[in-house]
Write a structure and sequence with these properties.
Length: 155
């Protein structure tokens, strides 16, 4: 829990979002694209930018962290992107961070989910991830964002 606090709380105590918070998602996954639209609608503080795991931005970030870019079953949040303090959150930890940054009800949900050990919440995350194409569908190509949101997509 201490690591979550250190990620969410800034050195000045403000708790504001780090510069360049990037959500890395599977661009052809129906569930992932719904999540992106969900975040776009609720990101009132303009905290998030987006990059599909199939794109070059995500590949470069994942390589910096010693991860294989071809794995599409994980949602990532990148904090302090491109900086020495760059941090990568994955799976349920990434989802909780997103909800926390959205505030309101969603921040409460994040705190509630935060009582579960990461191993248990990641187990649940993996069960959904393994069935996401079958349940939510798969696109042939990454859908294009609406014109008003295109500046938030990095590739």
């Amino acid at each position: 829990m201490a690591s979550e606090f250190s990620v969410l709380q800034q050195p000045d105590g403000s708790g504001s979002a780090p510069e360049q918070t990037i959500l890395l998602y599977d661009g052809v996954c129906g569930l992932c694209n719904r999540l992106v639209r969900f975040v776009l609608q609720r990101d009132r503080r303009d905290c998030f930018r987006f990059a599909s795991l199939q794109g070059e931005v995500a590949r470069a970030i994942l390589r910096r962290h010693g991860l294989r870019p071809g794995q599409l079953d994980t949602l990532y949040v990148v904090l302090h992107a491109g900086q020495e303090a760059e941090l990568l959150l994955a799976r349920s930890e990434a989802a909780r961070y997103i909800f926390r940054r959205l505030g309101g009800f969603w921040a409460g949900l994040s705190r509630t989910l935060g009582v579960l050990p990461v191993a248990i919440s990641d187990w649940g995350y993996n069960r959904v991830a393994n069935q996401r194409y079958r349940v939510f569908g798969k696109y042939d190509a990454c859908p294009l964002p609406e014109a008003k949101d295109r500046h938030k997509f990095l590739d």
